[in-house]
Amino acid sequence: MLDVPTFLDFGAAENEAAALARHLTTRTRGWEQLLAVAQGLMMRVQDLPDSTEQGPDDLFDYPNAAPIVAAARIFDTLAEFD
């Protein structure tokens, strides 16, 4: 499983990106901070050693794929709505 530190709260960041895209008036981090969270998540994926026991099939397991999916959704929302 991908080791994600608690300060990279990808679930909240994904929700905040959706809120910003819908121009909701809730308190959220700005696009810059959400982009930094997504980049931090992707960096952790890219830094995984090639010799990990996980294979591509492990990404079908939601707990393993959730951080990657959240980062992709943040990137997509930022590209589409900012």
Fold and architecture overview:
The protein has 82 residues and is an all-alpha fold. It contains 3 helices and no strands. It has helices at residues 10-21, 31-46, 62-81. Helix 1 crosses helix 2 (31-46). The termini are far apart.
Short description:
The protein has 82 residues and is mostly helical. Helix content is 59%, strand content 0%.
- Based on DSSP secondary structure assignment, what is the total number of beta strands? 0
- Profile the largest sheet: none
Written as H for each helix and E for each strand, in order along the chain, the element string is HHH
The share of residues in helices is: 55-70%
Overall SS class: mainly alpha
SS summary, helix count: 3
Evaluate the radius of gyration.
13 Å
Distance between the termini: 32 Å
Topology (elements, then pairings):
Elements: H1 10-21, H2 31-46, H3 62-81
What distinguishing features does this structure have?
82 residues, mainly alpha, 59% helix
